């Protein structure tokens, strides 16, 4: 009995010694972003860590060791805020506006959160945190809370890394083959694509690294009312970043050791039973079912009437049934093979073996859910990173793109028939196999590196020296200038020597003649 008691005490000591207090800071109000963060924070709590989560989405059902500090109400939630009528015919213009829209939105988020007083619960608490996990997206304005907490920082990104994040993690950013997040360019770009991609990438980096960064700094210093370090210092001292991408889908990039890909971290280990009505609709379709959803931030019922009618006519021509996420009670002229629902469990539907295609907007979460289940996609990107995501999926064989502005009866029907072909299904399954073939699950990978940083109280040793180098050293401008100077000096010396030699030679010849 004494032996078992000793083992129990030892187990408790080991458990407590490896338990950390972790603060999660997630200021963005897009639910699709927090869907990536929440599973990680819940898993950390389940593994014995005490987590405090600052977000707009508190848990509906409390779980042990998980504490919410709600930001709900500080600014409007983005869910169902986007109207397709504003996007479908101007997608190219939107790619340029994205940078400035994100900046405007960052300003609203920062002012709203700091002005709400919700941060006081963290800053005035006596809790000592071992680690901060913070979303790195369009603003760093909340990073200065670490001036009070003084804990190592782990970044997390729900999407493709934004251009202004590359520098702080020492990632080489070469726009000749790394597409800007809002561009639908392939990794092998032609001259004009590389030209446009370079211009947009440089504008984005300069704008955020200087203009947005300074605004974040002013907001934070106005709140803290003291001479805290510049916001860029906190950003550049982050140990590592977890990125919700995977090279099988998003292509390969030159990431150093402090950039950890955890694409698919939000995917549940098991599926849940579908509602009886939906399951019956899927299983009783001999030709399979097409699932149509434009995500959590866009309302399908805002489709312009002429586009909606194209979808309805095309669906009526197909032998497959269609499940359509439609936010209204009714859909005029709905064909008999179409079922509408305001909300559906996307992952559980895509996991059903009788689902044969997915019409989506190119959001990264839906893409990964479809890829894991080997479901071919028809991608209709309309904003932000959806263009890059969609193009990467198309390049890797998981789907094909149809811009909303190009939707007509023949284009939609032709694209759907293409992805429904068995050959396309085989490509989607091959992509699924590559995506799932990993030494560790995305969640286990993320948890390991979070605990690694906490164990070592930092992981700045994983960064390359590029993080701390001035731009002129990083780009070798000083070396290039030195080499050019040496070349010119050498040429000048050669010129002077040759000139002197010729002058002496001419003088000697004159003497001989005389």
Automatic annotation (TrEMBL):
InterPro entries named among the record's database cross-references: UDP-glycosyltransferase (IPR050271), UDP_glucos_trans (IPR002213), UDP_glycos_trans_CS (IPR035595)
Catalytic activity: glucuronate acceptor + UDP-alpha-D-glucuronate = acceptor beta-D-glucuronoside + UDP + H(+)
Pfam entry (one): UDPGT
Gene3D superfamilies in the record: Glycogen Phosphorylase B
GO molecular function: glucuronosyltransferase activity
Protein localization: Membrane
Membrane topology: Single-pass membrane protein
Main localization category: membrane
Record's keyword annotation contains Endoplasmic reticulum: no
PROSITE patterns: UDPGT
Protein's UniProt keywords contain Transmembrane helix: yes
Enzyme Commission no: 2.4.1.17
Record's keyword terms, sorted: Glycosyltransferase, Membrane, Transferase, Transmembrane, Transmembrane helix
Family: Belongs to the UDP-glycosyltransferase family.
PANTHER family: EG:EG0003.4 PROTEIN-RELATED, IP04436P-RELATED
Protein name: UDP-glucuronosyltransferase
């Amino acid at each position: 009995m004494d032996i078992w008691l000793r083992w129990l005490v030892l187990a408790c000591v080991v458990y407590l010694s490896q338990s950390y207090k972790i603060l999660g800071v997630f200021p963005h109000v897009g639910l699709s972003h927090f869907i990536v963060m929440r599973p990680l924070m819940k898993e950390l709590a389940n593994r014995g860590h005490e987590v405090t989560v600052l977000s707009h989405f508190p848990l509906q059902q409390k779980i042990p060791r998980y504490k919410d500090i709600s930001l709900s109400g500080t600014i409007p939630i983005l869910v169902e805020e986007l109207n397709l009528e504003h996007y479908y015919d101007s997608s190219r213009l939107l790619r340029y506006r994205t940078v400035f829209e994100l900046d405007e939105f960052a300003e609203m988020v920062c002012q709203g959160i700091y002005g709400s007083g919700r941060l006081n619960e963290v800053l005035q608490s006596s809790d000592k945190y071992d680690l901060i996990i913070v979303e790195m997206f369009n603003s760093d304005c909340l990073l200065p809370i670490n001036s009070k907490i003084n804990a190592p920082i782990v970044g997390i990104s729900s999407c493709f890394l934004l251009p202004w994040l590359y520098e702080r993690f020492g990632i080489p950013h070469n726009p000749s083959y790394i597409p800007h997040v809002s561009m639908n360019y392939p990794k092998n770009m032609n001259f004009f694509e590389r030209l446009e991609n370079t211009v947009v990438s440089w504008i984005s980096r300069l704008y955020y690294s200087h203009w947005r960064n300074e605004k974040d700094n002013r907001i934070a210093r106005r709140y803290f009312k003291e001479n805290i370090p510049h916001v860029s210092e906190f950003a550049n001292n982050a140990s590592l970043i977890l990125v919700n991408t995977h090279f099988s889908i998003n292509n390969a990039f030159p990431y150093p050791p402090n950039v950890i890909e955890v694409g698919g971290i939000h995917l549940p280990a098991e599926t849940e039973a579908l509602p009886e009505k939906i399951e019956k609709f899927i299983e009783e379709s001999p030709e399979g079912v097409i699932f149509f959803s434009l995500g959590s931030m866009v309302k399908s019922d805002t489709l312009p009437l002429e586009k909606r009618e194209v979808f309805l006519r095309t669906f009526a021509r197909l032998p497959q049934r269609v499940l359509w996420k439609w936010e209204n009670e009714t859909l005029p002229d709905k064909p008999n093979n179409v079922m509408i629902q305001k909300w559906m469990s996307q992952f559980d539907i895509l996991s059903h073996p009788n689902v044969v295609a997915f019409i989506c907007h190119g959001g990264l979460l839906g893409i990964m859910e479809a890829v894991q289940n080997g479901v071919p996609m028809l991608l209709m990107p309309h904003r932000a990173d959806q263009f890059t995501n969609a193009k990467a999926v198309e390049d890797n064989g998981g789907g094909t793109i149809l811009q909303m502005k190009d939707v007509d009866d023949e284009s939609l029907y032709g694209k759907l028939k293409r992805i429904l072909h068995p050959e396309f299904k085989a490509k989607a399954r091959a992509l699924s196999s590559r995506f799932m073939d990993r030494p560790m699950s995305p969640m286990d990978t993320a948890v390991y590196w979070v605990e690694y940083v906490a164990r070592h109280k930092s992981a700045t040793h994983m960064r390359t020296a590029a993080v701390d180098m001035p731009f002129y050293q990083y780009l070798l401008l000083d070396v290039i200038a030195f080499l050019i100077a040496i070349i010119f000096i050498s040429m000048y010396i050669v010129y002077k020597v040759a000139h002197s030699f010729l002058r002496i030679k001419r003088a000697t010849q004159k003497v001989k003649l005389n």
